[in-house]
Design goal:
Number of helices: 8
Helix content: 40-55%
Largest sheet: 7 strands, mixed
Shape: globular
Radius of gyration: 17 Å
CATH architecture: Alpha-Beta Complex
Bound molecules: guanosine-5'-diphosphate-alpha-D-mannose, magnesium ion
CATH superfamily: Spore Coat Polysaccharide Biosynthesis Protein SpsA, Chain A
Structural class: alpha/beta
Length: 240
Amino acid sequence: MAVKNKYSILLPTYNERRNLPIITWLLNRTFTENNLDWELIIIDDASPDGTQTVAKQLINAYGSNRIKLQPRAGKLGLGTAYVHGLQFATGNFVIIMDADFSHHPKFISRMVAKQAEGDYDIVTGTRYAGDGGVFGWDLKRKFVSRGANLFADTVLRPGVSDLTGSFRLYKKAVLQEVIRRTESKGYTFQMEMMVRAKGMGFKVAEVPITFVDRLYGESKLGGDEIVEYAKGVLNLWLKV
Ligand SMILES: Nc1nc2c(ncn2[C@@H]2O[C@H](COP(=O)(O)OP(=O)(O)O[C@H]3O[C@H](CO)[C@@H](O)[C@H](O)[C@@H]3O)[C@@H](O)[C@H]2O)c(=O)[nH]1
Ligand SMILES: [Mg+2]
């Protein structure tokens, strides 16, 4: 008998109190409509805005088998948030995404269908192919994102159109293996994960997504992060 697929969503949060209920509602709708089994793992880094209180209310509303809160004691960064959350994933597939509506749950059904089409190891959302795109960013942020992708693509040639995006579907075993090899912790993490996955021979497919800038709150991307990213690309170039 075929094993029914289950999708574990890893959702890192930092001050997402206002976004969390709606994103959870949309996820529930998407998975219910598509008749897919799922769980949501919220990795909150001691957000001062009360994100965890909201998460607990959601556990009460949707049930503890659907929504799980796996908090950490402080703001330890995105990369390690995925590593932390992954330990608790019970699905055979893992989806990583942002909590601020930049990644709309409606794209998940396309990612799931794409994965099944070619038994792909990874399906990544792309803003830079097909009818994908970015909305709500100023020119500077668009330039930084495009530049970051162009730079990594030129130096490392992974052949994936969106290296820094973080809306992705992985086979859990593949994510575990790639994450084990990945060294960077911050924004560089997504790019390194993809470069390593391609280097390890995993099959990657892309689904165009529209990335809409967050509704509430602020991005945590700063100047330091951009320097770290450039260093990360060059480090990989030396190693891979
Ligand atoms: N647990 C935890 N969550 C965090 C942390 N920093 C950010 N987050 C959460 O991670 C998600 C993304 O953070 P944002 O601050 O909204 O990132 P962004 O600037 O919009 O960046 C997005 O685009 C980048 C470039 O395309 C991506 O590289 C990045 O991963 C993200 O998708 C959000 O759900 C946010 O709450 C942290 O230290 N800890
Ligand atoms: Mg964001």
